[in-house]
Amino acid sequence: MSINATLFFQIIVFFVLVWFTMKFVWPPITKALDERAQKIADGLSAAERAKTELAAADQLVKKELAQASNETASRLADADRRAQAIIEEAKARATEEANKIVAAAQAEAEQQTVRAREALREQVAALAVKGAEQILRKEVNAGVHADLLNRLKTEL
Questions:
Q1: Which of 8, 46, 143, 145 has the fewest CB atoms in 10 Å of its CB?
Q2: DSSP structure class, residue 142
Q3: CA 33 vs CA 22, 24, 30, 38: distances in Å
Q4: pLDDT along the chain (156 residues), means of 10
């Protein structure tokens, strides 16, 4: 065979191969490449949406944290105010109770003083009677002289 005929048959085989490739092989490859490109584009857009949603969620979290922090500070301030009010109320009650105790102690002291004075008057009256008895060298009847002894007690 001649080189021209071989070359001619090779050209025909080449064109048949090109036609077969373009008709049956190339469309599925192109379709697979297009689908892959579409999946990549969808993935990139989903990643971009997720990035935007993440930024929005981050802002929301920061806002919620600030709100929680403010609320916590407010509750702490309220608790401090309540604690101070309770302390002041307890101080007032303690002062009032202390005043009552002091007043009761003073009243008790006054009563004890009165009782001690009465006891002293009794003892002084008894001593005065004994002294007078010894001076007069006779017995003084306490029942008979009760009026005199009562006047003596009141003078003391």
A1: 143
A2: T
A3: 15, 15, 5, 9
A4: 86 95 93 95 94 94 94 93 94 92 91 88 76 62 66 67
